[in-house]
Amino acid sequence: MLRTSGLSAAVLVRREADLDAAFQQQASYLFYGDQGFDLISRTVECTKAALGLKVFLNLAWRGERGLGDYVARQYDTAHRFWELARRRPGFVLPYEPESNIVCFRYGDGDQAAIRERLMADGAFHLTSTELDGVRHLRVTVMAPATDEQHLEALLDAVAGGRITT
Predict the structure, then answer these.
(1) Which among 106, 101, 109, 69 is positioned nearest to 82, based on CA atoms?
(2) What is the mean pLDDT of the chain?
(3) Looking at the DSSP assignment, which residues form a beta bridge with residue 140?
(4) How far is the C-alpha of 80 from the C-alpha of 137, rounded, in Å?
(5) Which SS3 state, helix, strand or coil, does residue 60 take?
(6) How far apart are CA 66 and CA 72, in angstroms?
(7) Which of 1, 34, 42, 156 is the most exposed place for a label (fewest CB within 10 A)?
(8) What is the pLDDT of residue 27?
(9) What is the pLDDT of residues 23-53, one digit of tens each?
């Protein structure tokens, strides 16, 4: 949700002392003697590339408000999917979404088979989950270009219609 690839990590704190406290470690294979200025004691990734830089650059470019607006927009788009789906016959939505994830069922058939059909077509990527022991489809709104046309096309595709995007 922070507009980076999946491999990124960052620990953001308001006070520098909190960051130092979060990374208090005893690791003689890493820390020994006076090494001067060294960021290894402040990195999540240790010896890997500075993956947190992706988060920092997005934050620097878009700002807190820009990232916040993006997340809010994805939440709103997921909520719109929920609104559209609950108006259609055959769709069952167990709860109103509070994030960018919506779980739903279509009909009484095999939900996994619906997912497999959509995945084979390649236009949409859905996952599934069990809620109270019942399989549900699960859509996660992440792409910034997702709009109402995409949502309607996904609903049509789930219901067995022709997939168009």
Answers:
(1) 101
(2) 84
(3) 101
(4) 16
(5) helix
(6) 10
(7) 34
(8) 55
(9) 665 555 455 556 555 555 556 556 566 677 8
